Amino acid sequence: MTARLDHARPYAVALFRIVTGLLFASHGAASLFGVLGGAHGGGTVAAGTWPGWYAAAIQLIAGGLILLGLGTRAAAFVASGSMAYAYFTVHQPDALWPLQNGGEASAMFCWSFLLLVFTGPGAFAVDRLFTSRTSASASTSASTSPGRRDETRPETVTA
């Protein structure tokens, strides 16, 4: 059973990344463009206002990158930090516990994105397209480089 679950791990992480990125990007789109009910029950956040507009931009951009699996670790790091900032500046002054101060979403997003920083994007990530091409071209160029020793054949020693 454990082996099967371990085999499915990259796909479970990918599904987690996709859903979390979509939800986060939806928050940003709602705040910036007024879609999906808008910001705080309707409307948009005024452009350039601190911190709401910048938070919404981070939500939309980082959420989209995480959804696609493009620069996942860096985007998740920024997203996690923005949610920690939101929790401690907006919610935590009202009460200590997230259930009391309405900061459950901020806390969950913060820890979810921090998890993605350490796990990576999982399967089905755009990052994987670039790393597979880069590693394939690097191994091809390394094996064809002049003066490069072939690691598969032992060297002959001449006296």
Brief description of this entry?
By secondary structure, the chain is mainly alpha-helical.
> What is the total tally of β strands?
0
Uncertain spans: 148-159
- Largest β sheet strand count, sense and barrel closure: none
Helix count from the secondary structure assignment: 6
| Rg over C-alpha atoms, rounded to the nearest angstrom | 22 Å
Q: Which overall shape is indicated by the principal axes computed on the Cα atoms?
A: globular
**DSSP strand content:** under 5%
- How much helix is in the residues? 55-70%
Average the pLDDT over all residues and give the rounded result. 86
Helix and strand composition category: mainly alpha
Structure description:
The chain is mostly helical and 159 residues long. 68% of the residues lie in helices and 0% in strands. It has six helices and no strands. It has helices at 2-33, 52-68, 72-91, 98-101, 104-119, 126-144. The longest helix has 32 residues, at 2-33. It starts with a helix and ends in a 15-residue tail after the last helix. Mean pLDDT is 86; it is low at 148-159.
